[in-house]
Structure formats: structure tokens, C-alpha cells
Amino acid sequence: MSKEPFQQKDPSYYELTEWVSENKLVAGITTRKNGYSDAPYTELNMGLHVGDKHEHVLKNREHLADLLSFRLDHWVISEQVHGGNIQKVGKKERGNGARNLDTVIPSVDGLYTNEPEVMLGAFYADCVPIFFYSPDYSYVGIAHAGWRGTTENIAGNMVNAWKKEGVPADRVYAVIGPSIGSCCYEVDQNVSDAVRNVLRNQEPFPFTEHMPGKFMLDLKEANRLILANNGIPEDQIFVTEYCTGCQTDIFYSHRNEGGKTGRMLSFIGLREA
Fold it and tell me: Which family is it part of (predicted)?
């Protein structure tokens, strides 16, 4: 895979081009462009949970569904509670969360499947999207890793769930997507201590103390280390250079836009062979 895994496919989304071009799947992340939402959600807000008009969000989702040729009723969306829980889903869950909040898969921040024509989706505005793919075993997954999910080992939980399914870690590829960088993400001692703990106190740590009790955290690197610690070969883990905090012309940033903004959708799904 090239150094930067995400390439712009359309003003509305960036694609994991090498995965998509070499295999029968869809995978990528939306931008904030070419949608129907008004400020402060301008324009392509994909989240129903942020206060945007329901009809605008559905139009945005239908817009993406048309671009991807992947029906909205085949999407599966989880609740996202900033935790470490994941769940396997399949065709019987298609449509959950696609059009309404009350049908989301509850209490999980990660989804995976080995069934085609199921598109997994999760929402972001600084948290880390982690994409998982095993071409040999036809498994895909998506995880939502804020600092809480990161420190609850959601990345490792996904790898371990796949191991139980018979998918060895050395046959898994992972991509860490656009999210807030260490340039923009200040955290306190409690967060840095939690990161130390999930990394089993292995140095070097993915943060620097820039004033007493305040740390600049590289959440992408934290998750890369967790993936490697759980057995994915380092040359099968790819990390974007895009920072949602710096690049608010392309992406939404909860932190750098004062907490009132839209959400991108990260998505992955297998197509019928």
C-alpha cells in the first residue's frame, strides 16, 4: 500500500484505494463536502445524533449510497458509547441504524462481518477509525477508537475476536484513518496513565508532556502499537497522515469546532463475488 492509504475518490469521500481496487469491497471515509446539511453541520453530516435535521442526514446518506452503489438498507450502524465492545453482524442486521437511531446495534463501538453486501459504518469527528480486512478469510471490520475506546483495547478486542473465528492476526491488515493528531490533541494525566496501562508500560509512549500534567497524545500511534502488540505485523498496519483538527476544510473536528459540528462516516463492506 502507498504511504498515504486514503485517496480522494469524490469531493464527498476518500477511498482506501488499494483495498478497493484489488478486492471486492468498499472502504473509505466521508468528508464534509457536497451535502445537504446547514451550519454548524455544513455540509455532509452523516450523524443522526448531533442535532441536525433528520431529513438532511438521510439525504446525505442516500447521496453516499448512490456514489458507492451500496444500498442504504444494507448498512449496519452501531450505537457508539466510547467503549471497547464489538459485535459480529450479518445480513440479518442489515438496515440497523441506517435510517433511525432507535435501530442501531446497541452498546458497541466496533462491528465486523464475513458476509457480503453488508456495509459497516461508524461516525467520527476526531476519534480514530480503524479499518480491518483479511482478504484470505473475507472478514472486514470497523472500530471507533476515542481515547476511552483506545484504552479499553477496542483494537485488540477486534483482533482477538477474529482469532476466535479462526482468522490469525498475521493474516489481518489494518488501516488507521483520519483523526485528530498529536499536534491538536491535549489530554490530562488520567488519560496518559490509561494509555500507559493499555500499552503495558512499554516505552516509548505515544505522548509528550508539554506542560505539567498536560500531554499531547498521538492517538493514531497508540492504536498502531496496540494492533502490533496483538499480533498484526507492523508492515500490515497503515496510518494516514490526515489530521481532522488541522484540516477542518475537509473533515469535522469536535474539538477544534467547539463541540457543535457534524460527523464523517467511515465504512467498509464486502461486495458479492
Answer: Belongs to the purine nucleoside phosphorylase YfiH/LACC1 family.
d(CA 94, CA 134): 21
Domain ranges for the chain, please list them: 6-179+232-270
Helix (H) or strand (E) holding 48: none
CA separation for the pair 181, 117 (Å, rounded):
33
Vertex 41: Cα angle to 39 and 42 (nearest 5): 70
Phi, psi of 216 (to 5 degrees): -95, 115
Query: CA-CA-CA-CA torsion for 234, 243, 259, 58, nearest 10 degrees?
Result: -80
Residues of the chain with confidence (pLDDT) below 70: 1-2
Question: Residue 44 class from Cβ within 10 Å (0-12 exposed, 13-18 middle, 19+ buried)?
Answer: buried
**Which CATH code of 1.10.3210.10, 3.60.140.10, 2.60.120.260, 3.40.50.720 fits the domain covering 6-179+232-270?**
3.60.140.10
Strands 110-113 and 75-77: unpaired
